[in-house]
Each structure stands twice: as C-alpha cells, then as structure tokens.
Write a structure and sequence with these properties.
disordered N terminus; 5-stranded mixed β-sheet; 200 residues
C-alpha cells in the first residue's frame, strides 16, 4: 500500500513550550469520555476515491485483507460507519477521514482520551498560525515520549468513534507531554478539532 502525505489535514505534531502537561488550560477543553478517543499509528494510507469491492474485515491482522477493506470503505461525509465506536483498540483498524476522504490502515491503539488532560485551540504568537495544543497526563506523557521518540517522521491518527479526526506527522520526540498540532486550518477549524478531540 502506498503511503501518501496528508493533503488537507493537520500536518505536524511538535512539542510546545507554553503549557504544562496535566494542567487545565483556561480557554481549553477537558476530555469528557476517555474511552472515545484513541491514538493509533498510521500503517498505510490510500488516497480519496470511490469505494471499490465488497466490504472487508476492518479489524483484520492480514495486510491483504486490510488493503481490500480500505479500498471498499465508503468515506463519504454522510456514509454510515458500521463500527461506530465499537472497534477493538487492541486490533488494527481500517478507517477514514470523512473530511478529506483519505483511507487509513491503523495499528492498535496506544493512548486513549484518558491520557489527555486538556486540549485548546489558539493562534501561535510566533507564527500567527492556528494550532491545537494538547496536555497529557503524567502516564500519557511517558508513553507519548517513548512512542514519538521511535516514530519521528511517521503519522499518528487521532480516532473518535472509529473515524480519523486527523493524522499528523511526528516531527520530533515529544518528551514533556505538551503537544502542538499545526497545519493549514483556520482558528474556527482548530477550535472544531479541539472540540471533536474532547467530545465537547
């Protein structure tokens, strides 16, 4: 399966200095249900396009079955999701981003919403760009530091109810749990992403 760069979604994850992990942010959101959000590694990505083939097993461990399921997945904005949050986080997942139509093969989840202390959207004063900041709990920060240290250059998907919200690329090891998502989006789009991540 060809790995393609994200065309529209958030492109970068990088450590941010402004916040302390685990501390509530005055303008931010707190994750309402820690079981909704999952962080999963991106194993492969297919470009947007019409669904092709019979629906496949979206949680198969077989790479051939995963690719077939990805090609057959209807990623339209109004397309129903048969899993709708009932995916097993211990298994791979074929999913898509309903906004971009990109299809993903994802590895098992390694962080959940319970590991996220707060999320906020804001303008980065250094660049003038809109960003989403996340602060992880102490346990989440340790897992995140280890995972990002091993996966610089790779993508990670944030998944809610079996759907990909964003799949940014890791730019550096993030050792303090304070994480910044940046990309080509407006402040209202960043605020919506923050709300979607937290379930606000």
């Amino acid at each position: 399966m060809r790995i393609l760069p994200a065309a529209f979604a958030v492109l970068v994850l990088a450590g941010c200095q402004a916040e302390v992990p685990g501390r509530a942010s005055g303008d931010g959101f707190v994750v309402k249900d820690g079981t909704r959000l999952r962080f999963r590694p991106v194993l492969g990505e297919l470009p947007p396009g019409p669904a092709a083939g019979a629906p496949g097993e979206r949680q198969s461990t077989n790479p051939v079955a995963q690719e077939a399921a990805a090609r057959a997945l209807d990623c339209g904005r109004d397309a129903p999701d048969t899993l709708d949050g009932r995916d097993d986080p211990a298994l791979p997942l074929v999913s898509c981003d309903a906004l971009t139509g990109a299809r993903y093969v994802l590895g098992p989840g390694f962080l959940s919403g319970a590991d996220v202390g707060w999320v906020e959207a804001r303008l980065d004063p250094a660049t003038g760009s809109s960003v989403v900041n996340l602060g992880l709990t102490a346990a989440g920060a340790r897992t995140w530091a280890e995972w990002t240290g091993r996966n610089v250059g790779n993508q990670v998907a944030m998944v809610v109810r079996s759907r990909v919200l964003t799949a940014p690329q890791i730019q550096a090891a993030i050792t303090d749990g304070a994480t910044q998502i940046s990309g080509r989006f407006t402040l209202p789009e960043a605020e919506q992403l923050a709300r979607d991540i937290t379930g606000a």
